[in-house]
Amino acid sequence: MRVLQKRLLGFIAMALMGTSPSWAGDPSMEAPPPKTDVSGLPAIAEGWAETNPYRGKATVVTTGRALYNESCAVCHGADLNHRNQVGPNLLRLERGCQKVEDAALHQRCLSDVDHYFVKSVRRGKRVLDVQHMPPWDGVLSPPAVWAIRTFIESRIEEQAKARVSAVKAAP
Amino acid sequence: MRGRLLRGRVIAAALLFTSFIQPVHADAQNSETLVINGCPIWPYTRCPGADLRHADLSARDLAGADFTGANMVRADLRSANLAGAILDRADLTAAQMQKISMPASSLKGAQLRAANMEFARMFRADFSYADLTAANLEAARPMFARFHYARLIDANLQETKFGSADFRHAIMDGCLTRYTVFLDANFDECKGCPVGW
After folding, report:
1. May I ask the CATH class of domain A44-169?
2. Chain B interface, mutation test: which of A112, A115, A125, A132, most B Cβ atoms within 10 Å?
3. Chain A nearest-CA residue for B33
4. Does B99 touch chain A (CB under 8 A)?
5. Which positions are tagged coiled coil (chain B) (predicted)?
6. B52: helix, coil or strand?
């Protein structure tokens, strides 16, 4: 009976090894479901919106920050502090949009960044068969992803304001 | 003597005037934002199938941009940043791409005939099914790049660093390979690839 049990366990382990991806075992490549409570996030239309539906909503930032620090910080740095991190600096996502003065074009620019952000989060990053970021599709819900995006935007805004006040304070 | 001086002044004035004229193809909204044939030029821009022929995109930041199937014949992309950009099936015939930075970009099935990619940074770029006939890759760095089924006919590969590049099923013929580095490259099923590496 014991031998049968061992064989069964061995068979299950073998089957799991056969189906697990090449990056299995690497903590930075896993996409565990977040424990942060997202039930408090405002309801949004089903599916993936073209632009961030939470843009400018300060109430979402706290949840977004918790989600970010739970799911993204391992590669992109806690609270978006990118120093010595393997992942790219997410504070630079909107570098192209900050210079755009025309309102309509600015919206389009942010929409392009939103699209790129959601695509990267959902599909992950896989370049020439090397996995750099796990796919989060089905793990992070649309409200969770948009909350993270809103947190990143709030930090970008904070940085921009700090830069302006530094320029004003300069003699 | 006076006539010459006057003529010189007229030419200088004409040159000054023409320098203020915007290029015909650029309908820029302001000095910072360039929009070419409906395609805004910024990082992560989405311009699949855009008409960017002869466009001046030199030194522009176009990281993560989507130019799938775009027509970029003779486009000027010198020193541009196209890291992670998607250029699948784009037509880059005779494009000026010297010193372009395009690591991890995707150029699957792209037309790169006679494109000039001198000193380009192309680490881990995907050139599968791309046509690089008569392209210039002199001193370019396509390390770990993929050239599955790519055509490298009469290309200038002088001093190109193909370290760990993947040439499976590629076709190579008549290329200049003086001081070219093919260290750890994969030549399985490649037609005309060098031997002895």
Report:
1. mainly alpha
2. A112
3. A100
4. no
5. none
6. coil
